[in-house]
Design brief:
The chain contains 15 helices and 13 strands. With about 400 residues, the protein is α/β, with parallel strands linked by helices. It has a 4-stranded mixed sheet with strand order 1-9-8-5, with helices on both faces. It has a 3-stranded parallel sheet with strand order 3-2-4, with helices on both faces. A two-stranded antiparallel ribbon has the order 6-7. Helix 5 crosses helix 9. The chain is globular, with a radius of gyration of 22 Å. About 45% of the residues are buried. Bound molecules: pyridoxal-5'-phosphate (PLP).
Length: about 400
Amino acid sequence: MLEKDEHEMNPAEHLSVPFGDLRRQAATLQADLAAAAQRVIQSGWYVLGSEVAAFEQEFAAACGVAHCVGVASGADALYLALAALGIGAGDEVITVANACTYQADAIIQTGALPVLVDIDPTTHTLDPAQLAQAITPRTRAIMPVHLYGRLADMTAITAIAEQAGIPVIEDAAQAHGAWRTDAAGNPRYAGAWGTLAGFSFYPTKNLGAVGDGGAVVTNDASLAEQLRRLRQYGWDRKYVVSAHGGRNSRLDELQAALLRVMLPHLPHRNATRRQLAAQYQAGLAATPLGLPPDEAGHVYHLYVVVAESHTEREQLREYLRQHGIGCDVHYPMPAHLQPIYSAWRSANQPWLRPQGAGSLPHTEQLAQRILSLPLYPELTPAEMDRVIAVVRGFYSG
Ligand SMILES: *Cc1c(COP(=O)(O)O)cnc(C)c1O
């Protein structure tokens, strides 16, 4: 019976680890969140009031920019940033295909054409060399994505953009608090590199609300003014429409108040994510998995490993599932292979470019081989050990 007793004394052997668990963050901030919610409910002012104004100031300061405009979601933030620049039919916007369809959809909504370029296979972000080749006289914006919490190569991208006189819109939905050193040697945050940047406060993001939310940040006062019109029907003042392309996309007071509770916790929560990533790095070094190259300003929204083949990824995924370890793929289907866009392949007016398999090799190959492991600040040491042990077990078994 000795064996059985030993088993019972080692519960970690059977520990299941969820891919995410938002209740854990909520539990640590419970009292402050409840007080903030109550403050808003009792105020009787629920849309575009003092909480949103205060959060906008606090988040702009956290990013190191002058202006922040709260909106309803990250997807809207990207659309509104494009609309603020007056981008529309006949224009082209360069972006990537490996970060779901948020970017291409936002561009299509303006009437412009998404031009997709391949990624750097090491960083999974927009390849500056591909960017330079994709610029045409119709290019009106460049939208790199700071995927998984790592800034794209913004030094190279902004240099190319400046030379061509094209604005950059950062998709910073996965990169709150991420940074990179600029040409002058100073750290510069996600959101402070482009003409505009879009953030999402979807609950699972590094800074997440208790519902949907988003923001556009910029150093340009007139673009900020235009965004304030666009997020509210295009109104210049109440019931007077002056801006084209507006919609109802307001961050609400409740979400803003809750985000104000969470924002001061972002730096130490990001630091914890980095510590956990370092543990994975050490624990998985002996496996054949490709691990994310570390960088000081990477905030590990996701910890994404790369299997040697699609078959191996699928087998590892199933093995983790059987052992109770949550995992996911971000993202399984590149934008240019989505059925909604390929259905339009034969039309004279394509919805995006390029189309069809084989056109973006790194993007397509990585979509087959990537796997996201659990990584959030509330993961316990026992859970981290368990994930590492199971992944190692897959390769040694
Ligand atoms: C989450 C996300 C978005 C969209 O944000 P929502 O708030 O969900 O609309 C856009 N881009 C990237 C890279 C994201 O991860």
